[in-house]
Amino acid sequence: MTTAPAAGSRDLPHPARDEIRLEAVLHALSDPVRLRIVQELAADRDELACSQFELPVTKSTTTHHFRVLRESGVIRQCYRGTAKMNGLRREDLDALFPGLLDCLLAAAGRQAARLGD
């Protein structure tokens, strides 16, 4: 059951662990900008505000990328004051798809090294 926000709340809807689908996760991680967001969250191992990411896209496109990651179950977002904080749902992803996130992040790192990114 998707966790829906209360009426008038600033909470954002997230899929429950058992609703997270492999296809949605792979789709979310197939975009280079979204993969970069996940890499930064994985490296930091803490929540980061949306404003802490320097992405090569407009603010509205950035919002779209975060929404895709949240709706697929890859990240969790919450408001802390006026900041929208983002955290990787590593525990959920590792429980559902053991090793997937680590493999994808390692492969992305090897590709970046190979291509000089």
Secondary structure layout plus pairing:
Elements: H1 22-29, H2 32-44, E1 48-49, H3 59-72, E2 75-80, E3 83-88, H4 90-96, H5 100-115
Antiparallel strand pairs: 1-3, 2-3
Helix pairs in contact: 1-3
Span from first to last CA?
39 Å
What top-tier CATH class fits best?
Mainly Alpha
Alpha-beta classification:
mainly alpha
**Largest beta sheet: strand ordering:** 1-3-2
Major β-sheet, in short? Answer: 3 strands, antiparallel
As a whole number of angstroms, the C-alpha radius of gyration is: 14 Å
User: In the CATH classification, which architecture applies?
Assistant: Orthogonal Bundle
CATH homologous superfamily caption: Winged helix-like DNA-binding domain superfamily/Winged helix DNA-binding domain
Low-pLDDT segments? 5-9
Q: What is the number of helical segments per DSSP (H or I, 4+ residues)?
A: 5
> Which range does the strand content fall in?
5-15%
Q: In the residues, how many domains can be counted?
A: 1
Find the CATH topology.
Arc Repressor Mutant, subunit A
Order of helices and strands: HHEHEEHH
| C-alpha geometry | globular
Q: What share of residues is helical?
A: 40-55%
Protein name: Transcriptional regulator
Pfam families: HTH_20 (PF12840)
GO molecular function: DNA binding; DNA-binding transcription factor activity
Keywords: DNA-binding, Transcription, Transcription regulation
